[in-house]
Amino acid sequence: MKDLIKKYWYIPTGIISLLLIVVLPIFINWALQQKTSYEVIGNSETWLSFWSTYLGTIIGSLITLYVLYLTLKQNEANNKKAKDLQIAIYKKGLEERRIQELTQAFRESLHFIELAKITRYIRLIQIEEYEKPEVFFLDELGKTFNKHSSFELDFISYTNDKNLDCYKSIFVDLIIKYSDYVTLITFIIDLLKNEDYTSKIRRLILNSEIKEYIKDEEYNTLVNCDSDEKFIREILFILNNYSKDHNKEYNELHSKLVDLSEQILTSKKSQLGELGI
């Protein structure tokens, strides 16, 4: 009942107003014709004029107040619309910036590992040029460590996104594999820089960490080499095999990252379009 009255308030209000308009003049006319036991100043015409002015002023004031109320209510609605629009525009701008940052973060992570450059430096190692490759791979090792440490910050503005969590997990796996691969290459360069195979083998035995990155049979083969040529041939064979395996794993993981990044950006842009601004 209360909801009906609130929804159709103008019907009883109109009926009461109509009754007042019709009944009030009749009542005033009747009242002015009645005789009273006390003295009344003025005649019927004077009192009719007074009541006309008095009631007209009241009705005019009520209409003015009502119009003012409607104006204020309309202004409030307009202000709310303007405020909502400003908030929506701000949210859209914020989301656009976040999408730009996300796009940049994807671009940097997807191009973080440069296979063409790695292949070029591997070829230099194969022709016994070690200085430039050593500098490059040591830099890569530091860059990989820094990227692993700061990677989460690139996507800190997005949470509770399953695809993005999956992307981060795959990228971290890629970084770990790349870090192991680069570490192995720096070990190999360190070994190859020694002048003869006995120095190489001695260095191999002293640097026991390399056993964490190659198979036991490969390590044993290197230790048992009886010439420099054989040692270089065996260790370059190991390097080539690990490079092939790394490149294969990289291409598989990179392909997954590309697909996920496209899905995430498409979803974010779709959500942005739903704002309707």
Tell me about this structure.
This protein is mainly α. The protein has a domain at 91-273. 81% of the residues lie in helices and 0% in strands. It has 9 helices and no strands. Helix 3 runs antiparallel to helix 9 (228-273). The longest helix has 67 residues, at 44-110. The protein is rod-shaped, with a radius of gyration of 43 Å. The relative contact order is 0.08. The model has no long low-confidence stretch (mean pLDDT 83).
Give keywords:
rod-shaped, 277 residues, 9 helices, mainly alpha
How is the secondary structure organized here?
Layout: H1 2-7, H2 10-33, H3 44-110, H4 115-126, H5 131-150, H6 162-192, H7 197-206, H8 216-223, H9 228-273
Helix pairs in contact: 2-3, 3-9, 4-5, 5-6, 6-9, 7-9, 8-9
Compact summary:
With 277 residues, the protein is an all-alpha fold. It has helices spanning 2-7, 10-33, 44-110, 115-126, 131-150, 162-192, 197-206, 216-223, 228-273.
